[in-house]
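U., I forgot to send this yesterday:
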Amino acid sequence: MLDTLPNELILYIALETHVLSQGDVLSLACACRRFSVLFTSSDARLALAAGNFDHRRVINLPFNIGSTVVDDRWSALCALADVGALAEETGARELATSLLADDGIDAGADANTVLRRAAAAGNVELMRLLLTRSDVDPSDHNNDAILCAVYSGSEPATRELLAHPEVDPGTRNNAALVAAASDNLCGIVRLLLASPLVDPGTQSNAALVEAATAGHDDVVAALIADARVNLALRGNLAFLKACTRGRLGVAKLLIAHPAISPQAHENAALRNAAAGGHTAVVALLLADPRVDPTARRTEALRRASQRRHRDIVDLLLAHPAVDPEHL
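Result:
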């Protein structure tokens, strides 16, 4: 019956009413050439492939802003990429295969935007279809695809790109590893560390410093277990930042490492932890014989007292080297 209706009415039924589900519309697009051409050339641009989205929101997405590409089929691929998975029930997988089988489509257009968007959405199925094509370059845009995958926290997408011989996960001074460490994406950190192209000691151990500052225990443990990480290089900075922020788990990991000097910078770790009210970290530091609580005229005690951290004051006063007259 639908095939007897004028195009304008079909589009109205498909896009403006709730008579047909998005899956129904997509099935029609895949099953009938007339509907496929109609939906492809319409403003919908086959964005209905994003079956779990509200169709009005999807249709209005500015697919081609900043892009020189205006092909509706390419825009449809972008819509599919953003979904996150090619659901069988919506016909999205069939649609993607059909679009990519079109000899006239350039799947790598606009600096491989479709692949980058699929990576950001964790759409591994579409990524696999794209990565088999000669017109798709996963290293384009300075390996932006793997950065998109990492920045969005998609472990499957990251794994898929790491397996590709043209992808350099150490691109942009190992930005992917630093970002993953900062965001506590331990699974991705481990994947990246397994690559010989990644240097975890880059930017003076930036990944370690970021993870330690944020208190990401598992990430710190993974990094310091890697022989390429030299804790003699800014390791004490990572320890200082962890103590300053009260990151007890990280402080415990680092203080046990022979390259770490907890008394560095005139016992700054103790002074900062005391000022910040981090009782457990102060207790950890005071238990280490290398730490001097009297440094800089018992500054740790004075700062804890000024900020009314009573538990820390008591801990410091209980230390045999501390003179209570300094209060």
